[in-house]
Structures are given as C-alpha cells and as structure tokens.
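Input/output pair, single chain:
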Amino acid sequence: MSDKTRANRYTVLASKEPVRHLLEIKRSEFICYLLRVESEPQARAFIESKRKQYHDARHVCSAFVIGADRDLQRSSDDGEPAGTAGVPMMQALLARRAQGREGQTADLSDICAVVVRYFGGIKLGAGGLVRAYTEAVAAALDTARLTPRERLRLGLISVPHSEAGRLENDLRAQGYAVLGTDYSASHAEITVAVFDDSQLQARTEDMLAQISAGAYHIEWAGTEWVDRP
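Output:
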C-alpha cells in the first residue's frame, strides 16, 4: 500500500479468514460473510465465489471499502429495491467504531461484506430490508475481531559493531520496535520502526541524542503498513 495517504492508521479485520453470521427475520435468511481484502479484484472474486456457492439464493448483495483513506467504495443491491441492501451494508461498514489512539474512531477498511438472502415468503418492505441488511452486517461485525493497522516509518541508525547490542537494548527499553541489525565490514545498521508521525519522529531523534550523548543520529527511510496487536 502506498504511503501517500492522508491517514496513517485505520482498522481492519484481525483474521484473513472469512467471518460468517446467520440472521433470520420473518423466515428470510440473511447470511453475512466478511472478508479482509486488499484490492477490488480480490473483493469481486470473493463476491463471485459466494454467488457460485449460493447459486439458488434470490439475492447476493455486497459492499466493500478499501484503502487507508477508504477512497474505494462499491456496493450492489443485486436485484433488491434500489438503496435497500448495498448502501445500508456500506453504511454499516463505514459506521463501525473501534478503539484507536485517540479514542473510538470509525475507520474500518479493507473489508468486503456479502449478504446472501433466502426469501422466506413474507415481504419485509423497503424499510424492513434496510434494517435487515444493516443488522446482518452489524451483527457479523460484532462477532469479528478487529485490529489497528498503522503506517510505520523506518529509521536507520549506524553504529560501531561494539555498540550495536547495547543500543538495541536501550531502544527496546524505551519502547521502540527494533526490526533488526545488519552488519557490514565497517559498521552495524540498526533498523527501528515508529508510528509515522512527525512529532513522534522528532521525539525519537531527541531520545537517541540523549541516550547516545549525541554520538548517533537516525536517518528516516521508507514506510510499511503493519497490524498492531
């Protein structure tokens, strides 16, 4: 994923295995599946797989949102009255709140929801369908485990071989994630990762200067997205 996003954190499903939940309303069955996805082709492949699996179902409706900025959003009513299935499903995804660094936020993304409907013989009406599809997704999300996904900035610190072990321990003691150390003929290079925030990066630079008495400095490199437990 590109680091050229407005958001540097969002929420995802913790597992890459599908989540399944069955909701029954007036003898109609609403079977909701949730899957973590990284691209539109992956989401559409999942939707198509459910169409094939439930080929006898009356409707297989869907909604998915992808990207840190949630800028890719698609939904389908699949034959239900316009606006009664796909849009409510999408709103349920977008409205889901999770605990973040600054309290609860609605930032769920990289997720595809599919709701398979088997008609039970009793019409629900437009309002009933909206409520049913919304509840199907919301109830499935209630059973799912969510986790934050953060963009981390990588920092490189060059030190003499003899100092690498001590500095690694000092960094870990300060709560920093040390990803590893590479050794060349002339020096060791320690790689650390911090949340991609300019103020935090500045504090990291100050911390390094303090614990090394100004002997070492950090060079900021690229970024990578990681799930944070």
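The chain is about 30% helix and 40% strand. The two ends are 19 Å apart (CA to CA).
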